[in-house]
Amino acid sequence: MPAYHPESELLMDYASGALPEPVALLVASHVSLCRDCQAEVARLEALGGALFDGLEGEAMAPGAMDHALARLEVTDNLEAASATTSPPSRAGRLVPRPLRDYLGDDLEALSWKTRAGVSEAALLTSFPGFRTRLLRIKAGTTLPQHTHEGSEYTLLLAGGFTDASGHYLRGDVAVADPSVDHRPVADDGEDCLCLAVTDAPLRLTGPVGRYLNFLARL
Amino acid sequence: MSAASRKSDDPPDPARLSRLVVAVGENRDRAAFAELFGHFAPRIKTYLLKQGAEAGQAEEMAQEAMIMVWRRAESFDPAKSAASTWIFTIARNKRIDALRRERRPDYDPADPTLPPALVPAAPAAADRAAELTQQAERLAEAIRALPEEQAELVRMAYFEDKAHGQIASETELPLGTVKSRLRLALARLRKALNAGGREDA
Ligand SMILES: [Zn+2]
Prior knowledge:
The complex is a heterodimer of chains A (218) and B (201).
Chain A: H1 8-16, H2 21-32, H3 35-53, H4 64-78, H5 90-93, H6 97-103, E1 113-115, E2 118-123, E3 130-137, E4 152-158, E5 161-163, E6 166-168, E7 173-176, E8 185-186, E9 192-199, H7 206-217
Antiparallel strand pairs in A: 1-2, 2-3, 3-9, 4-7, 4-9, 5-6, 5-8
Helix pairs in contact in A: 1-3
Chain B: H1 3-6, H2 14-27, H3 30-50, H4 55-72, H5 83-98, H6 122-144, H7 148-159, H8 164-171, H9 175-194
Helix pairs in contact in B: 2-3, 3-4, 3-5, 4-5, 6-9, 7-9, 8-9
């Protein structure tokens, strides 16, 4: 079982549906690999259900239910058989289903860019404000020292890496906020595969934010 | 002010709501569906309005969400969630899809690299279902008992499509204060969430 979990705020935002898609994808992938977080998400969804049930209802239009019942007749007949999925390849097996839904089964078919022992394949590229990448780091590689403009979440899928904050293995989530100046080193023996989501400073808005963004690019 | 005057009959209790969803799933029971519609459709509409849907859109989407309830009722498992929780997740996903135009990555409870979950035998599943409906009742009680400043933040977290950071800027509270109030609220609610839960040692 993973040793490093998303913080409870992140799980709550996942349960409520407030997380932006790239971060939700990373959390869903961790939760797929973590029974503890599955139980916690179930509890947080139960809380959502209780809050939802406590809402004061807004009256529906007259005849709404008859209308819905009439639509049922139509949709019942249209219901498609759920697609059967073929079992994933061996590499695909390492990738939890939420992420596989984005990547497909064949990791080699992604367009990888390689530089200094690190290959990366971008996904969710049109999602504003976030960089989402699958990273493959050659065993034993030291990543160049870097800081982050935004927070970076990394979910380990295979292999492991170590930085000042700990040693991360399959299923673990590492969080680096902008103040962290870190230098992860991939474990020896096995290439490290991970999903990294960075929220870029693009999310800052307003005149001050734009000024900060400008400074960040200098 | 006059909340009492807006309440219609006594709302169905959680155990009844679960039975209604099961009846729809097993027998395509239209009377059960009508009762579910009467209870949940207006709440889904309120939920969507809070998320920024316009009135007509909220009405339309609430109907669509209830149609999903009909179509997916067979997959409802009362040993996994209370009816209100299950319908909340349907409304939530509908909102992400229709209002935000994003996909909702759902987690996979059966990842092949995880050891299989212990599947409870039939009587245990019935116990679990009963625990969940009791949990729903306890939670409703615990939410009512929360200090207002905490209850408001919890509602914002669930109903206003705002991550914690946005809540902080909106309420003009420091992020640390938002987090600590939400943690306090969660700590109070946890008693209601956990009591009797089997996986909570
Ligand atoms: Zn976890």
